[in-house]
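Before the break, one more example. Copy the sequence into your notebook; we will annotate it together after we see the structure.
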Amino acid sequence: MQQTETKDLLVNIEGSVMNLTLNRPNSLNAFSSDMIADLKAAIETAKHDKNIRVVTISGSGRSFSAGGDVKTMGKNEPLDVYEHIGKLNELILSMRDLEKPIIAAVHGFAAGAGFNLALACDIILAAEESKFVLSFSKVGLISDGGGLYFLPRLVGTHRAKELLFNAEPIDVKEAHSLGIVNQVYPVERFEENVTAYAVKLASGPSKAFGFIKKITDQSLVSSLEEILELERITQATVVTTDDHREGVEAFKEKRQPNFQGK
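Here is what the structure looks like once it is written out:
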């Protein structure tokens, strides 16, 4: 196990899983410039470390993240806001560019940009008591951090507008039924279930997972013809991997494959 701590982020690497914990519990893990920079640096580390095959993002204390820090709202100049959101955008883009699964482990509240950080992940696992809220319009703002991109693609434009206009909390059951949340776990076994999910994903064919993530995201802005061709080219590459050969051998031998991410 390898563990490091910066001002606003805990980084814990266990086996092939990098666990990132937002660490501003006294402010419900509201975003700071340091937190955004530290998250981006950690994602860059995961990108270049072949031993890391899955990333999880969670929050310390009572909630996942309250999003923007209310202490600074109404005090920032437009240029400061523009630059701050630019850094957040760089983080979101680095997460989508990472060809490894990212899991959001949500408990308590995921609000505002905290909700959108979870949406930028590939999988959202949630504790039974968790709630989601796009609180921007409550303070006369629009959604940032990619929310206006990710949410309509999950729930449709009409439902997304309703959620954004009303800014009311969404309980975990509704979030699950809308397709926002992948799995819901009891609070008392949440960490255990998240760990098991991440470890299982990390044991999969990570080369194939990387291509699946990339092409699935690309499909949102591509034609069918473009995706069909991308699938064809990619499949011709994936059949040369050690993981494919191991998968075929395991299937023939009626055993579980031992994928190495190669």
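The chain has a mean pLDDT of 92. The first strand starts at residue 2 and ends at 5. Try to locate both features in your own notes.
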